Amino acid sequence: MAIVNKKARFDYEIEEEVEAGIALVGSEVKSIRAGKINISDSYAVFRRHELYLINSRIEPYANASHFNHEPERSRKLLLHRKELDRLETKLKLKGYVIVGLKMFFKGSTVKVLLGIGRAKKKYDKREVIKERDTKREMNRELKKYSR
What we know:
Number of strands: 9
Helix content: 25-40%
Oligomer: single chain
Shape: globular
Structural class: alpha+beta
């Protein structure tokens, strides 16, 4: 099961994707397995040369004891030092941001697919909407005549 951030591909022009591990506690993993997660506004920032995922909400696990996790805490992303250095230099360039695109299980571990890109302008978003609508209309017409 994968949790996808559809809003990110619409709001950002993704140039590169990076797969990273994420440091979680047990009740967070169980909540992710249950699908109780929201990564629609998540992004990654550097703190003391380490990458953290911000604004990802993992709901508290219902069957956990009173030692449950905090839903909106910052979670450390696990990458090799070389990858972290490369991402940090890229992030220093003007306009680049790292957003969470997808969270999924790879075996028994939870992975996050990060997208490195720039924010789209309003006219770019309008163009995407226009293309999507014309494509939908063309498919509708083709379906009508193929019967």
